[in-house]
Automatic annotation (TrEMBL):
Species of provenance: Corythaixoides concolor (Grey go-away-bird)
Main location: mitochondrion
Residues making up the signal peptide according to the UniProt record: none
Cited Gene3D superfamilies: Transcription termination factor 3, mitochondrial
Protein's cellular compartments: Mitochondrion
Subunit organization: Monomer.
SMART domains hit by this protein: Mterf (SM00733)
Gene transcribed to yield this protein: Mterf2
Protein name: MTEF2 factor
Amino acid sequence: TYTTDTKSGEENKKTIESLCGLSVDVKKIRRLKEWVLLQDVAYVTEIADILKEMGADETAIANILERCPEAILHTPAEINSQRALWQFVCQNDKQLIKLIEQFPESFFTTDYHENQKANILFFQELGLKNNIITRFLTSAPSIFYNPVEKNKDMIETLQRNYLSLGGSDANMKIWILKLLSQNPFILLNTSTAIQENLEFLQKNDFTDHEVLKLLSKLKGFIFQLTPATMQKSMLFSKSVFKCSDQELKELVLKCPALLYYSVAVLEERFEGLLKEGISVAQIRETPMVLELTTQIVQYRIKKLSALGYDVKRGTLENLDGTKKDFEVNYGKIQSKEERPIFNPVAPINIED
């Protein structure tokens, strides 16, 4: 433990000496989180020793402490408890130290240790694999800050709604696990918000089966929306496509992004497509193209144009899809363009 007799507001010299001894860039800490250097008590060598024990080399330790200097303010006991907890879902120390290097803030947030522990056990009981739980710990740490009862309540709400929408008991577990692994932030919602969003869809004449389809297609992101934002997006699409409520519903089922994206995003993407000479009728035929950013659309159009493919005349399906889908379509068009045309009337030269 390092303490200092310096007055409050002054940097702790012992802390700085210890950090320098570990080749840590103190200037970087001073610039980003100087308050750490002002603390009277710090555990620099102790935390470094724990990291070293886990297999971190000098460079890794320096990087971790530069990115998350507040790590040195935790007691060794706190960090050892956190280590034991994360080891519960990590394969080994090698994997753990790799995760700490990538996501130091997630590991060194120890205020919710008991909640983390209870939630890890709950997720394991649910059937989530450890590699998914470690992904949650690093990329969605806030879901572990919830008391486990809150997460249990959310899962029960989702299960209840899944069954009430016609989902089967047999498929429910798989559905929940898939939804969670795709979008763990779903747990940060409230039961009321979920209920309101589902009711909004039902009021807009989506059948239970269609609502379930939308939930799966949108990976649960629908719960991060509000009835007001969905209403605005739907009204915007209706006015652009000049379609009936039924036609709009069909378009939304075909392309849930029409429901998910805000009016500002949809407007920008529509304008981007129209500027490229694409018609509203074409967009209506392949609305999924609105899932792509304007930059991606421009890049793809440029690539296709270089092959002589005119998107203004053809279908937008070749423009659509994931990066992989596009590359496959592009490859097909390219090979078609390069293939020599066989002329059955042309004489065949045969050497004697």
